[in-house]
User: What shape does this take?
Amino acid sequence: MTAAEKLNWEVVCRRDDLVAQSGVCARVGEAQVALFYLPGEEQQVYALNNRDPIGGANVLSRGIVGDVGGRLVVASPLYKQHFDLNTGECLEESGVSVEAYKVRIEGDTVLIRN
Assistant: This one.
């Protein structure tokens, strides 16, 4: 990783702040970001904007994580739409999505790309 690439990553929290198989919310700049920790997966942490675009509330971090047709998703606690953890795409509503962020764990630190 180049020095310039390292500058684009920001510390969000510590690994101990995450809850396995679940989501937590963190503030990154002005945005609320839902972080999902799946320690059994090759990519262990995922990040989406926390705002449910259909229900209009910041609740995705409280959703249930699962698998729909081989895609890792979170089900919104409001109306149960599924959002792909990799892309932010809503599986039930064409053209609806949330921002997906690049995120990684480095040692005990969780970093997000800004």
